[in-house]
């Protein structure tokens, strides 16, 4: 049977705080056709009704492209729409509790900031991937903790799950993270605000060979 985390490699698109659902879907489709391997639905401005509406439509779009769609934070939403998984931070739902709710076939990712100990703990609890960052200045998330490139090297030697780089990643710096051990790079602003979204997604995807 194919393992859940085998598909966690390449470009990982993270949606911005868009209230215009049509624009969100159009831009995400360009990212999908550009080669994104995962999409995370993250919208900190949307209310519960809009989140459910957008997440449902985004999941349907991702299924069309056979690409996993992960929900950020909201376990209840991920369960309700049968999303492909959830991404949690340290202040969100516990990984063990999320696994109980979602079942063994769903993807669970965990933010580990700049701490290898959190990543080791997340892996031991059953996380399918861990994310480190921010590696570069980012406008997507406030009060970020910065991570050194060396943590990717350390994590590669210590962990067996895929490692994601996040935070301020763009066409200029993505390759550096990959060369230092990132299995995937999570990108939001540089994708959704790009002049040519499809081409940007395609270019970053090609960095993975």
Automatic annotation (TrEMBL):
Residues given in the record as Mg(2+) binding sites: 73, 92
Positions that bind 2-[(2R,5Z)-2-carboxy-4-methylthiazol-5(2H)-ylidene]ethyl phosphate: 138-140, 168
Its EC number(s): 2.5.1.3
Pfam families per UniProt: TMP-TENI
Gene3D superfamilies: Aldolase class I (3.20.20.70)
Reactions it catalyzes: 4-methyl-5-(2-phosphooxyethyl)-thiazole + 4-amino-2-methyl-5-(diphosphooxymethyl)pyrimidine + H(+) = thiamine phosphate + diphosphate; 2-[(2R,5Z)-2-carboxy-4-methylthiazol-5(2H)-ylidene]ethyl phosphate + 4-amino-2-methyl-5-(diphosphooxymethyl)pyrimidine + 2 H(+) = thiamine phosphate + CO2 + diphosphate; 2-(2-carboxy-4-methylthiazol-5-yl)ethyl phosphate + 4-amino-2-methyl-5-(diphosphooxymethyl)pyrimidine + 2 H(+) = thiamine phosphate + CO2 + diphosphate
Cofactor(s) needed: Mg(2+)
PANTHER family tied to this protein: THIAMINE-PHOSPHATE PYROPHOSPHORYLASE, THIAMINE-PHOSPHATE SYNTHASE
Name of the protein this chain belongs to: Thiamine-phosphate synthase
Species assigned in the record: Nitrosomonas aestuarii
């Amino acid at each position: 049977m194919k393992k859940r985390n085998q598909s966690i490699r390449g470009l990982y698109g993270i949606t911005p705080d868009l209230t215009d659902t049509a624009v969100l879907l159009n831009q995400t489709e360009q990212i999908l056709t550009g080669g994104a391997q995962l999409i995370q639905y993250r919208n900190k401005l949307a209310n519960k009704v809009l989140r459910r509406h957008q997440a449902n439509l985004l999941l349907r779009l991702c299924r069309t492209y056979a690409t996993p769609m992960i929900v950020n934070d909201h376990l209840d939403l991920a369960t309700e729409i049968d999303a492909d998984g959830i991404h949690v931070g340290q202040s969100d739902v516990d990984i063990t509790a999320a696994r109980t709710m979602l079942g063994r076939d769903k993807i669970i990712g965990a933010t580990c900031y700049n701490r290898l100990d959190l990543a080791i703990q997340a892996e031991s609890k059953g996380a399918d991937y861990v994310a480190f960052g921010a590696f570069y200045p980012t406008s997507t998330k406030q009060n970020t903790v910065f991570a050194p490139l060396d943590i990717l090297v350390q994590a590669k030697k210590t962990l067996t799950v895929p490692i994601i780089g996040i935070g301020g990643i763009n066409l200029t710096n993505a390759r550096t993270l990959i060369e230092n051990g990132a299995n995937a790079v999570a990108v939001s602003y540089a994708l959704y605000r790009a002049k040519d979204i499809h081409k940007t997604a395609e270019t970053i995807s090609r960095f993975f060979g």
